Amino acid sequence: GGGGVGAKSDGQDLNSKLMNLVSAAPVMLFMKGSKAEPFCGFSKKAVALLNKHGVEYGTFDILQDEEVRQGLKDYSNWKTYPQLYIKGQLVGGLDIMNEMDEDGSLAEQLPQPDDQDADLNSRLKRLVNKAPVMLFM
Questions:
Q1: How far apart are CA 117 and CA 62, in angstroms?
Q2: Rounded to whole angstroms, what are the CA distances from 109 to 56, 60, 85?
Q3: pLDDT tens, position by position, for the chain (137 residues)?
Q4: In terms of Cα–Cα distance, which of 73, 83, 102, 104 is closest to 27?
């Protein structure tokens, strides 16, 4: 998008940065910590929920960047974390993720991997990440 812009303010720079971040992957989770080490119960539950669906997703640790942590609250008009974005659009926090999981709308919104085209490594990765503990016998 264009538009007449005078001197760029820091706010516009931050907005561009946030716009890029929320679109960095088709599914993005802004959380405290990482997939491997979530720093709070809410983030841990959000990660478990996405893993349950076997979807590829990116994460951003808001504790590593105070500017993003504060700026995203205004950008999204959502004051708490984690925040889930699908295709650059805010879906919501953990409560909304849980509600959508229960009524099936989360699975509908998440990009569905096409198993026919997926290579063996991605299929195995999805399989291994389907549950916190997976036993192959």
A1: 34
A2: 13, 20, 10
A3: 444 444 445 667 999 999 999 999 999 999 999 999 999 999 999 999 999 999 999 999 999 999 999 999 999 999 999 999 999 999 999 999 999 999 999 999 998 765 445 567 777 777 777 777 877 77
A4: 83
